[in-house]
Design a protein that fits this description.
The structure is a homodimer of 330-residue chains.
Chain A lengths: L2 E4 L6 E4 L26 H4 L4 E4 L10 E7 L20 E2 L5 E6 L13 H18 L7 E8 L11 E7 L4 H17 L3 H12 L3 E4 L3 E4 L10 E5 L11 H22 L4 E6 L14 E6 L15 E2 L3 H9 L5
Antiparallel strand pairs in A: 1-2, 1-5, 3-4, 4-6, 6-8, 7-8, 7-12, 9-10, 10-11, 11-13, 12-13
Helix pairs in contact in A: 2-5
Chain lengths: 330, 330
């Protein structure tokens, strides 16, 4: 069974999940083509569906779907587990409560976000939203992370387009840091720091990839890696799962355009996409702003940057943005 | 010129260093054998030496050295730069002040920490200590990081055994988090949290790799990756650069033994070694405890764990420690 363990010095929580794979079997082999459990027709292997977008003439757990959500076959966390903040012990084991789901983003093995249509991406975002909405009703869960890894260099173990949802019974440190920074600036200025950044990026333009009235894509001022790109709604909203259908459509368009630019500029780079959305609670409604962080994984990270260390980025975000503005699918 | 930029939301500082390599030239090619700038005889290419351990009959900047410290040829930071905490702007550029040096750990291209003797490692640790001692006299510098990357999967761009020293005009967030946790526990209990961990690891034994009266190697309770291993002195000491010669010798012995076990257990794994030592200031003297973190880089990290996210570790540290206890060079 998995367990959450808290580091006695930093207080950071780590998931120890020995059932996920046998020791010594690392690294995982990447399954290809014929044996892919996520392809249409292999629904029984992928697992019992939690949610799907399919035409009405197809049965539950059968084919005919565009997007399908299943439990992770080797879940790092389970809703059946317990979780307790223990007394002040040096070594704290907190149980393995949480949720770990897989969003299979297309029935087509060869699809990726640069070849999928904006409508396809909208269906993916719909599945993310619906799953977070549902999990938010479990009062034991406090934060929701969505991560999409593309390519072995980004830690992906399957080629088929998919993302993962992890729901946690606590707020992890990196999200807490972001939320605390956003709150502090909100206390100072009375407005959302993310909204202020968006306004500045639109005004300045040097780090702008593309924008319209509703959404924006830009390379952040303190980009950690070459071509880090954020996609977000220009309208303030703390929780991704409160986005409207129209909001999702607009973000899907921006995301589709941005991924196409990245695929052209960097030749289909391995990358990670992270959804950051507000943890449970009312306190962040005016200060937090959900957003998508696209992290190209172009080279192995130096130990200097490992686990929240110091990033040395050899490409200024202004140069990356210029390159992305000039990169359109031919 | 490099610059330090502070993220407007999280406050994290990133080094933007466009001179380090041309955009689009990523990833760096790994130089091999004949063209290695770190081999003996190529001192003029490696650069003017800042420090060296050599026999007295050899000239400065010539051969006959065991360890040699030179400036990084493409420094992320420079002591000639300025640094200023600016006013409360959204986008803060802080200048590129700092130091970035390379410790060439052996004249022999094929050496690594599992083949080098404990005496060789002691000379490396001596060079680390002397350089930090010297840089600490620059009152503008507030923290000192040493990182050793081994293997392309750990971000190394040169095979020849080396480590890097980065001195910063601020305390980076990951070190600040660790120091804050250690201080909080010291305030609660009146003693060093690291010392408490060491005592528990010796008493419990399940995560112990090896120990004696002076030093310890163990797999931490909340290990972030398989076979994460810490090496430290059992005697309390906040600053690595205050270690005695005897202290360095004892640590070098433990480090040599530990690397040999890791090389046997994991077949010469790519890995990172990080030295964590107290930032400038008196406040941490009783609460901080310098230590070495050995991070095997066995598989590409999931985006979930990227930059201080949530680590999912499939190997319990108790299993890793048992394996390392059983692994001795044949």
């Amino acid at each position: 069974m998995s367990e959450l363990r808290r580091d006695p010095i930093t207080g950071r929580t780590v998931i120890i999940a020995p059932e996920r794979l046998r020791p010594m079997a690392l690294p995982l082999e990447t399954l290809r083509g014929g044996s892919c459990p996520f392809c249409e027709g292999r629904e029984a292997i992928a697992g019992r569906e939690i949610l799907a977008w399919r035409t009405p003439d197809h049965p539950h757990n059968g084919g005919g779907w565009r997007v399908r959500v299943v439990p992770n076959r080797e879940p790092a966390l389970r809703v059946e587990s317990h979780y307790a903040e223990p007394a002040d012990a040096l070594f704290q084991r907190l149980g393995g409560l949480g949720a770990h789901e897989v969003i299979i983003e297309s029935p087509d093995h060869g699809a990726n976000w640069s070849t999928m249509t904006a409508y396809d991406l909208r269906v993916v975002l719909w599945a993310w939203r619906e799953r977070i909405r549902d999990l938010r009703r479990d009062v034991r869960l406090k934060s929701f992370l969505i991560v999409k890894n593309v390519g072995a260099a980004a830690g992906a173990t399957l080629d088929h387009a998919h993302s993962q949802l992890v729901a946690l019974p606590f707020v992890p440190q990196h999200l807490e840091d972001e939320r605390a920074g956003a709150r502090a600036r909100h206390d100072d200025t009375g407005s959302c720091a993310f909204c202020a950044v968006v306004d500045e990026e639109v005004r300045g333009g040097s780090r702008l990839v593309s924008t319209d009235d509703n959404t924006i894509a830009f390379t952040p001022f303190a980009s950690r890696v070459p071509f880090e790109t954020w996609v977000m709604s220009r309208r303030h909203g703390a929780a991704f799962d409160e986005e409207t259908d129209e909001g999702l459509s607009a973000v899907a368009e921006r995301l589709s355009d941005t991924l196409r630019r990245l695929y052209v500029a960097l030749a289909a780079p391995p990358h990670t996409v992270l959804l950051h959305t507000a943890p449970v609670g009312e306190a962040d409604r005016s200060s937090y702003h959900w957003h998508l962080e696209i992290i190209p994984r172009l080279s192995a990270e130096s130990g200097l940057a490992w686990d929240g260390g110091i990033h040395v980025n050899p490409v200024a975000p202004e140069d990356a943005a210029r390159h992305l503005r000039d990169s359109r699918r031919p």
